[in-house]
Amino acid sequence: MANIKSQIKRNRQNEKSRLRNRVVRGAARTAITAARTAFTENDPQTKEAVLKAISTLDKAAEKGVIHKNNASRRKGRLMKRLADFIANPPVVEEKKKKKVPAKK
What we know:
Oligomer: single chain
CATH class: Mainly Alpha
Distance between the termini: 79 Å
Low-confidence stretches: none
Helix content: over 70%
Mean pLDDT: 91
């Protein structure tokens, strides 16, 4: 434990900023996960989910929670996947039901 007054104050400040950053970083992760899930589930709201994720990444980078290049890389990957999704929408195949033989 620090016994220097300035270090004690710095520790308090670091804890406050860590909690603030954690909220922003968590929101960005949640938005990215929602966008990825929208791709896999062939959701009609996929584009909106991607745009929301990009917005949260921009906010996180602006606040310094994540590095701007990190945000840019993640945004690029999402946009590339969205462009591919729009160009070639996945075909959803229905599962065939097995025929159950009738009891005699």
